[in-house]
Amino acid sequence: MTATTRTRSTARAEDTRRRIYESALELFRDKGFEQTTMRDIASRTGVALGGAYYYFASKEAIVLAFYEEMQAGSHQAILEALQDHKKLKDRLRCVLLKRFELLAPNRKFCDALFRHAPDPKDPLSPFSEETRTIREQSIEHLRVAAEGGDIKIPADLRPKLPHLLWLYQMALILFWLYDRSPRQERTQQLMEKSLGFLVNLLRISALPLMKPLRRNILELLETVSS
Fold it and tell me: In terms of Cα–Cα distance, which of 157, 144, 145 is closest to 204?
């Protein structure tokens, strides 16, 4: 096989994989994740069922590819957007809005995916080993947002704060998924009010009298993370 032939073969394989991926996302949006089968995906793409399995071991693998692509596509955009904001509240809002912006077109199947969230052994869970890289990059965005803000974070809280903010982000996403208000206005209200509360709490967290509370929060986080 010549180099040209190998290049064409690779290009065809990449094109097939992309078509399977895009067909799957269309079906997840139209029918929902749980109702879609690999046979449906193969049929929509126009490939044999074995061909679909050759590129993706399962529909869960397709969703993981979606997670990875979404995160990779948002990484630089989030970092660049943060440069326009100095206040912590604005920086955190910036990250959250970018996350919702990316999830919005796929909201219909994202709610089904969150049913997998409680089980860290499920590959689709945000807490699973399979999603570790995605999770860590999301936490990194929040770390950058917090460290570049206008509030000095206590030294003992600083290493754990990004993880706490990530849990807060996940709670907001879960609320958003089940928010049936027009244009998810209740989520917007919750985000604004909770961000104000969170930032005010961080603002006073450096006070000496808050040290016992910080210790309790860190102990709780350690329990959740272990």
Answer: 157
